[in-house]
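quick one
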Amino acid sequence: MATTLISTLTHTSHDLKDPITPSPPKLAKYLQEDDITQECQALISTLPKDQGWVLSYLYQYQGFWHPIRQLQGVLSCQRHFQARDTDIILITSPKCGTTWLKALAYAVINRKTNPPRGDNHPLLSFNPHKSVPFLELKVYVDHQVPDLTELPSPRLFSTHLPVESLPLSIKETGCKVVYLARDPKDAFISLWHFANKLRPQNSCKLQLEEAFDKFCKGVSLYGPFWDHVLSYWKCSLEKSNNVFFLKYEELKVQPKLCLKKLAEFWERPFSLEEENNGVVDEILSLCSFDNLSNLEVNKVGKLSSGEQNNAFFRKGEVGNWANYFTQEMTEKI
Ligand code: PAP
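structure w/ 3'-phosphate-adenosine-5'-diphosphate:
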């Protein structure tokens, strides 16, 4: 498993295609409740518990809600992950544009070895989640403790963890964190759709009103949503050299400007020659919703954690919430 992860992250080859398996969705790995360590069992017996959005429980750890298997990954990542000054960490609350940010970061950082206009670009044959793995959901899942020291710099990782639960070394080193935020109304609608896709086919749909109540109470994956965003917002003010706060809506409206700022933040600015040659536009077009969502791999492939790749592409719009919210919901949120 660790070897697969390392080879995925070094991505020197283009043969890393996601499996094309049109099988019915199973409960995603981090929502399963088996194979839990005694340590984690003991911990959860002390934690507040509430019914989750899929079929498993959520437990409140360090102020934020997790399914049990995910929590196990959180504990392991807190214990073992050693950040480097050169690391790039992408952080989001779920459904705030993680997939898009991963694609952009991967394409920017690897543009010399994998020019964005190439027919063989890795993002054409595997889902962006494979190019930038989640620490707690992929790297440290299932009791793995991979040796990440051989990975070339900059290493790219992602997490949904709140500031309060980040491994200490991320806070103490000079690694570059990008936090992507999104209008909570759109993030909520996106999460509600996603949760219903993750629910087994024979179970009933989670009603919008029920999900909304939970979201407003903070009981959602990595919720409370507001605490998550606010902590990173404060961090970005205090440590502006290390934490870049970006909004999905800004990225939509001014993608070119945002991408150039991101590349500068990562200390890989676009040269004038690259700009004149259209490299920035090519990366944006490679990572666009239309392009990624229409790739074969993202239509029928699935992640090793069990989610169908197409579950990460729905509308990709700003303001889709308006089709679902009542006046009362808008006021409440
Ligand atoms: P994750 O946090 O579980 O990894 P994430 O990628 O943040 O998921 O959420 C998916 C959302 O990003 C979807 O939003 P929607 O439900 O409102 O449509 C998805 O459509 C959107 N998305 C995925 N890829 C892109 C992209 N390339 N450009 C813009 N939006 C995108």
